[in-house]
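Subject: sequence -> structure tokens, single chain

Hey, anyone have a minute? Need the predicted structure for the following. Not urgent.
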Amino acid sequence: MEQTIKFTKKNTLAVKGIAISFLLCYHCFSQTARMGGAEVSFWPLPQNLAMLISLCMVHCVGMFAFLSVYGLTLSMKSKYPEYDFDGHTATLFVLKRYVKLVLTFLVPFVFCVGVTFVTDTFRYPAGMFANIISIIMDFFGVGHMFGGRMLVSTWWYLSLEVLLIFFLPVALQIYRKYSWQFPDRKACTSDKISFYRTACDMFC
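Reply:
Had a minute. Here:
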């Protein structure tokens, strides 16, 4: 009996938790400068080894990107199992996901803008016009994409997320058109089982 492997929503949340832990370790402990001069104990690990491990946790970006694409793909596949959607459907899908991303980002964006304004730690360029342009690009997640100066440097990931959303329908259409070039998993599994049984009959 073939065992079906499913990556459930519960599994996704677990991996997100791991990725967030990686993100915190990378941004807080991968470099001495990021510790703000505080004395940090990495017991029982030596500090150099702990910082090296934290540096390797930069792969949290790839984990978040994978989870994003995986979730978007499942969402599209639930409505179009064969990915046989048209351009109008793809456009609505992209707009819906993009608006959802922007609205989700609204609260942390307003919070960060308010805090940096009150504490006088604005990172936007001088001049009202330049500030407005930078704020708009940051809010819509395209600041890094168009080379603008971002309020928070780690917001570059939003530009990646926007690109993933916009290009996913294109990637799915390419997969649908050329999927015949990819071997069928079930067929490959059946072939392997037949091969192993034949080998056992011959040598066992």
